[in-house]
């Protein structure tokens, strides 16, 4: 028996990286899934490969009419909506604040934050009517700490976390749960610096950043899919309004081996002597 038997999910950004890993895990656990993504070739190929119970809809998550159509498509095809995973994203605007244009700002916020607002807005009525549902959004460790990503990406992800909490307070009354996942470095095209990054480039990213990870390796899409599965399943039925950091320990601090003054066992212990009595 799968953990998502009988459940229906929409996964945005489901044609690549974290989204694709989550689609595969959800399907393996018995869910029917609608992949909503800009990438028509990738999304169609995945839906064809995974067979009955998986469909693809070309969707730009920053456009309200397309997000509304995405939710309608899921309920038309599969009859209900148990989980929306707001996951699509990109790196957003790069560079100093003084040279960031308003157009850069708008595009970054539209794709990373407005999309989450739109997903919640259009999924909520369906889930409230059903009396159940789980909305999950991909934020980032960059949304809880400055310095991990460019300005606007970080701010958008911070917004995703706070929107998660405010909407959770409203929808909890109708048994609709709303949570966010904050991934650390995950080996995907996005983290490798380009949406079309090939496996060689992704492997270089793995090798380059493994030593900065407390658990000695970067994350894989399957690490985030495991958390998404937990939040989509009934195992998390008393959990809402939270952000879950899944980062191999990255946000906790640097690996122990990077602090030789703490980790060398031969270092003498110095302490103040208690006063003589
Ligand atoms: P990815 O580049 O592998 O996948 C992103 C997917 O989103 C692609 O299939 C792309 O076509 C789709 N997409 C982009 N803009 C879209 C739009 N406007 N409408 C519909 N689909 C769109 O990237 P990855 O790493 O899987 O990213 C997934 C989410 O995880 C993003 O929200 C990203 O910000 C977040 N994240 C990723 C981290 C990482 O290290 N890879 C770390 C923290 C957060």
Structural notes for this entry:
- The protein has a seven-stranded parallel sheet, sandwiched between helices.
- With 277 residues, the protein is α/β, with parallel strands linked by helices.
- It is built from eight helices and seven strands.
- It has a single domain (8-263), classed as NAD(P)-binding Rossmann-like Domain (Rossmann fold), CATH 3.40.50.
- Helix 1 crosses helix 7 (221-232), helix 3 (64-78) runs parallel beside helix 4 (102-130) and helix 4 (102-130) packs parallel to helix 5 (151-171).
- 1,4-dihydronicotinamide adenine dinucleotide is lined by residues 12-13, 15-19, 37-39, 59-62, 87-90, 111, 138, 140, 183, 185-186, 188-191, 195.
- Residues 12-13, 15-19, 37-39, 59-62, 87-90, 111, 138, 140, 183, 185-186, 188-191, 195 line the site of 1,4-dihydronicotinamide adenine dinucleotide (NAI).
User: Can you tell me the CATH architecture?
Assistant: 3-Layer(aba) Sandwich
Rg on CA atoms, Å? 21 Å
Gross morphology is globular
- Note the beta-strand portion: 5-15%
Distance between the termini: 69 Å
């Amino acid at each position: 028996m799968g953990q998502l038997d009988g459940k229906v999910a929409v996964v945005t950004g489901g044609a690549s990286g974290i989204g694709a890993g989550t689609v595969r895990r959800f399907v393996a656990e018995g869910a029917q899934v609608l992949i909503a993504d800009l990438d028509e070739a990738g999304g169609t190929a995945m839906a064809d490969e995974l067979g009955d119970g998986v469909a693809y809809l070309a969707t730009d998550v920053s456009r309200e009419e397309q997000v509304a159509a995405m939710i309608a498509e899921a309920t038309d095809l599969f009859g209900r909506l148990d989980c929306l995973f707001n996951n699509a994203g990109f790196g957003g605007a790069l560079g100093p604040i003084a040279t960031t244009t308003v157009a850069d700002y708008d595009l970054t916020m539209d794709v990373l934050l407005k999309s989450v607002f739109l997903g919640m807005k259009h999924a909520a009525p369906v889930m409230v009517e059903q009396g159940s549902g789980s909305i999950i959004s991909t934020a980032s460790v960059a949304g809880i700490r400055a310095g991990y990503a460019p300005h606007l990406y970080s701010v958008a992800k911070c917004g995703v976390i706070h929107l998660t909490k405010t909407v959770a307070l409203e929808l909890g009354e109708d048994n609709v749960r709303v949570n966010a996942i904050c991934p650390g470095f995950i080996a995907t095209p996005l983290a490798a610096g380009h949406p079309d990054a090939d496996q060689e480039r992704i492997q270089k990213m793995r090798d380059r950043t493994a030593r900065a990870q407390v658990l000695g390796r970067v994350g894989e899409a399957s690490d985030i899919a495991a958390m998404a599965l937990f939040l989509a399943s009934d195992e998390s039925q008393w959990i809402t309004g939270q952000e879950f950091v899944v980062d191999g320990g990255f946000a906790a601090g640097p690996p122990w081996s990077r602090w030789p003054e703490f980790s060398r066992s031969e270092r003498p212990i110095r302490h103040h002597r208690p006063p003589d009595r």
